[in-house]
Amino acid sequence: MFELTLCSLFTILPDYLFRRYAQGKRFGHEITLFSVWYELRWGITGYLILTTLLITTIFYFHPATKNAVSFYRTVPLLPEGSGRVEEIFVKLKDEVKAGQPLFRLESSKQEAALETARRQVLEVDATIEQAKADVRSADGSVQEARSALKQAQDELETKEELNARSPGTVAARQIEKLQVVIQSREGTLAKTLANKDSVDTKVNVLLPAQKASAEAARAQAQVALDKMTVYAGIDGSVEQFTLRKGDIVNPLMRPAGILVPAEAGQRGLVAGFGQIEAQVIKTGMAAEALCLSKPLTIIPMVVADVQEIIAAGQLRPTDQLIDAAQAKNPGTITAFLEPIYSGDFDDVPAGSQCIVNAYTNNHDRLEDKDIGFGRWLMLHAIDTVGLVHAIIIRIQALLLPIKTLVLTGH
User: What letters, b where the CB count within 10 A reaches 16 and e where it falls short, cover 131-145?
Assistant: First the structure.
């Protein structure tokens, strides 16, 4: 409507003034309801052409969309396994901090497993102490075997020395017997040394490995027990949290509630512009937003990023080939907008629906000294008609409460 009124000021109005004052024609006489088209044909034709060009230029170079939402991510409150609620630490709408416990599931099975793992560690510790005593016993056995062997060797040397000085003094049978005794005691010494090595290996290698395995089992049991308590991963507020003691919580079918991050939706808007605006929407463009949750307020924004792909074109591999004719919805160009001034978006509730206008800025092109007059004039006109869109969104801001509360009854 604003474009129609503006264009009429430059087309129909001058034509009428010419007819009225230059040609002397008057409404109700020469200009009637039936002769309006003939009398004002040049103005009406120019009016239609100018209006079409103006609307096309405005909406192409200064795109607008009603598909703008302050999306935010929610975090479902789910345990890693199913279970029955045993204890609840927070209530609905509570503000929580990261790491704060929310609720705990029944954990008698996990507690029993943890206690068993602890007992196994204590059992291995006791076995290590017993093995240390075995090491001392093996050391004594080795010392005893060595002393017995040394005694037999000394006795054999003495007998051999006596027999060498006085042949026949010592019977050959006694010397052979001592030699057999020495061989036996050497075997006993080797056996005790092997036994000592076995005990040392048990103390230094086997039992430490068993203790490490027992401690790992204890840690695993502790982790399983800790998983029975669900903690907040981030700061936020607890919503749809109606748990009661005895409820069954399932990570696949029945979440406990939703955790809304503390800064959810406060960064900006996600806006979807028509595909025809793909060559116009650029990062850094100035924009304005009018949100339903904050009427009568225009929020200055900037296009922070533009998604390079169109969501409507995505596909997933299936057992059927994709038919392009099935993609009837053309999809939109997704742009991410952020407020220019900090704090402007703080009081806009997350998930708000907004109207967004983006404005093309040709200031840098106009600064080019080599620009031609025709191009200079066209770029000036493009930047100037952006004012029309700025006026329109402000009119929408004024009419928004009336349209929402009175005309639609919401």
Answer: beebbeebeebbeeb
Residue 159 has what pLDDT? 67
The per-residue pLDDT for range 359-400, each reduced to its tens digit, is 988 888 878 778 888 888 888 888 888 888 888 888 889 988
Domain ranges in the chain are 1-61, 62-72+265-312+329-410, 75-98+229-261, 108-223
Q: What is the pLDDT of residue 302?
A: 93
pLDDT digits (tens, 9 = 90+) for 220-265: 988 888 888 888 888 888 888 888 888 888 877 778 888 888 877 6
Q: Which of 53, 41, 61 is nearest to 360 (CA)?
A: 61
Q: Categorise residue 309: left if φ over 0, alpha if ψ from -120 to 50, beta otherwise.
A: beta
The CATH homologous superfamily for domain 108-223 is: Helix Hairpins (1.10.287.620)
Instruction: Name the one residue in this structure whose structure tokens are 């406060």.
Output: 266
CATH number of 75-98+229-261: 2.40.50.100
Beta bridge partners, 269, equal 337
